[in-house]
Amino acid sequence: MANDTMLRFTKVDQAYPPKREAEARASDFLEIARPYILAKAEEQASRCSQCGVPFCQVHCPLHNHIPDWLRLTAEGRLQEAYELSNSTSTMPEICGRICPQDRLCEGNCVIEQSGHGAVTIGSVEKFITDTAWAEGWVRPIEVLADRGGQSVGIIGAGPAGLTAAELLRVKGYEVHIYDRHDRAGGLLTYGIPGFKLEKEVVGRRVERLAEGGIHLHADFEVGRDATLAELRQRHDALLVATGVYKARDIGAPGVGLKGIVPALAYLTASNRKGFGDAVPAYDDGTLNAEGKRVVVIGGGDTAMDCVRTAVRQGAREVTCLYRRDRANMPGSRTEVRHAEEEGVTFEWLSAPEAFDGDASVTAVRAHRMRLGSPDASGRRAPEAEPGSSFRIEADLAIMALGFDPEELPAMFGAPELGVTRWGTLRVDHKTMQTSVDGVFAAGDVVRGASLVVWAIRDGRDVAEAMHQYLKVKAPAKPRAEAA
Description:
By secondary structure, this protein is an alpha/beta fold. The protein contains 19 helices and 15 strands. It holds the Pfam family Fer4_20.
């Protein structure tokens, strides 16, 4: 028989944490949602139907024990809820903030399908772990074994690399992370704006790893500071978790004009400015939207990050061009709604055909699109509408067309490192090992640009795969001292 604290979805309405008013939040980079109070978190958790087949859990890449920690939250057993949430995820409060719950857990909630509105899973997850940090329930990393000095090197300090580092450290390995940036976190630090993920949230996770004995080598570029082979000599196993950072481009006339910039460079400059760094390209206006007419091209989450960042920088007007319609965009519907509230204009079924300007961009010329027959991916392919050209004035055009892998074999000085026809690293999907013995790969560099939650899942899986490898391959000779 169901506990009387649950199954309240017919009596309690869905209620997300209140958002700050659009006008107020558009002037800063703080998160837009206010936190739940305990009573509200308990109330919303009590709406869970405790269904026999929890589709929320099935559709979560981490297969989090969502109904169980919702029940514990509803019963006021918050510390137990945190322990259960933390058992499957290394970053539950981060996933609670940036996962597209509308496409994953909440979008597949049984009571959502029944018309009662999904349980606010992401907001409760965030509340549970933020409370755990505040109450001191987040314990230091506990090393559970002695691996006899075996060490692993991890290339990339994004969510996949950080997750694998934590889990391998728990298993007793000496862990070294090598990252080309000056701060750990990857896109969590430099790609995602503060209004979605305040940087203190990432920083405390990184600090916990350092306090647990994990060594971070910042400003370290593989290929410049050491080749892949040299790192392989230092460690008993390596993990490549670099993500994908090569910006996609289009071959339209005028694409080389000043004022046409890649999305990640734009977002990184904004985040660095938030840290208080010196950012000349921001200060001289190259990567700053203040007072400008901004056009963002793309329909994914990165495009949404760009349009909302431009609003906060004081753009004169912000327009998003996307070649498909609202229903077929890859980004979060919630983010689109937030952007519209903040004054962003969306031009659906529109694609750029050229950029006007002499030295600098002055306008984007575009044409209307229609959706034709499905392509190889199953999505209806956009086609240009004849005679439908139009023009949008622009001082800054931001290209948010997605990311491809960098040429890692050449960058790392490792031509033996196998890649797929898409440029991602080729791995044995059973062992997660690349073509080089003892070198593993995980995250976007294997699956292509994807979600943070999938990177965490891959980091969890590759840590176990590396552990199985290292259990039977103890170091046979002394290793060079890690730099």
